[in-house]
Each structure stands twice: as C-alpha cells, then as structure tokens.
Amino acid sequence: MAEGCLRALRYGMVFFNLLFWLGGCGILGVGVWLSITQGNFATLSSSLPSLSAANLLIAVGSIIMVIGCLGCVGAVKENRPLLLSFFILLLLILLLEILFLILFFAYQDQIDLYAQSDLKKGLQLFGTEGNIGLTNAWSIVQTDFRCCGVTNHTDWFHVYNATRVPDSCCLEYSDNCGLENPGTWWTAPCYERVKGWLQENLVALWIFALCTALTQILGLVFSMTIFCHAVKVDTFYA
Prior knowledge:
Blueprint: H1 2-37, H2 53-77, H3 80-106, H4 108-123, H5 132-145, H6 155-160, H7 190-200, H8 202-237
Helix pairs in contact: 1-2, 1-8, 2-3, 3-8
C-alpha cells in the first residue's frame, strides 16, 4: 500500500514538473519572441532599463525550466542530489516571495514615492535618441489607460519646457495634437490609473498568488518525501 502511494506520488511529481518545464519553455519562447520582434518596447523606468517584459519573461521561463527539469529527472530516477537541489531552489524562491510581500506592505508608501519619482525621471528621456523603447512604452500606456503623465498631465510641461504633451495624451490622436488646447488631452494620472487597474483585479492576483504558493508547498512536500524514501532505500541496501 505504502509502495503504491509512493509510486503515485512520484508519477504525480513527474507529471507536474513536466508541465512546469513545458510552461517554462513557453514563457521563455514568448520572451525571446518579444525580444526579437518587439525589442523597441522597453521599461518605463530610467534606473532599471533592463527591466522589460521580454527580459522578465526570459528570466522567469529559464528559472522554471531549470526547476522543472530538476524535479522531473530527480523524481524519475529518485536521485537524491537532484531532489535536494529541487527542494532547496523551490524553498529559496518561496522564502524570497514571502520576503518581497512583507517588504512591499511594510514600505508601500516609500515604494509609491520612489516609483513616481523614478517614472518622472524617465519622462525626461522621452523622444530622445536611443530611448525609442521607453518612448513607445509611454505612448502605449497613455493610449491604453487614457491617461497623461505620472501624477498629472503637467508632468510633461517640465519635459518640453512648454505647455505641451505627447500626442498619445490626446483624446483623439492626430499629429501634433499635443500642442493644441489642454481640453483635448487626457488629464488622469497614469500612475493612479494603473494602480486602480491592479486594485480592480486584486482578487484574481491573490488567487494566482495563493495557487502558486500552494503548488510550491506541495512540490516541497513531495520532493522531500521521495528524497527521504531514497535515503531509506540506499541505507537499507548499504
């Protein structure tokens, strides 16, 4: 009975880790595709220019692939080093996620202020040579969220040193519409619009986070159970 349960546990771990590995391949593939085809779409941050959607997907996909491979091969062969490596990596990621959440809620106000300040610095690079990625990113955000500037449309006045905004701030897009009457511009702050969108989808985000944490905890339990069984078998035959 115990042997049957352990076999089912091992097969289950192999199946789920195979799915993780395939998922990691998919995420990595999307990241590479974005990097190649949408390489001019970068981050909004001036201090973290490498923090783009493509780079994040490539990093996350690579990590998932490595962990999935360790878990899958380790479970199939009941290889103790691979199972232990899988357990340690998964535990470290889970602890880092918990630490990130604690720090985020503890310093939420400071993070808000820093993010707004950093985004405003990024505005100064809008439309400049070598920053087409940041320029496109701001244009897409302002068009999709129907907003203008970080905290106010007047943020752009300091960039242009004039009463002017990018054309992506216009209610109806047309060339040089950002030079026209302010009544034809979006005035809602982009920071608050994006923050509001996240709050509207907070339930879905929490469900995703809880499912992720539960999957990680199950992975830790399953891998340690198989690891302990492998140790007992090796000890018995030693």
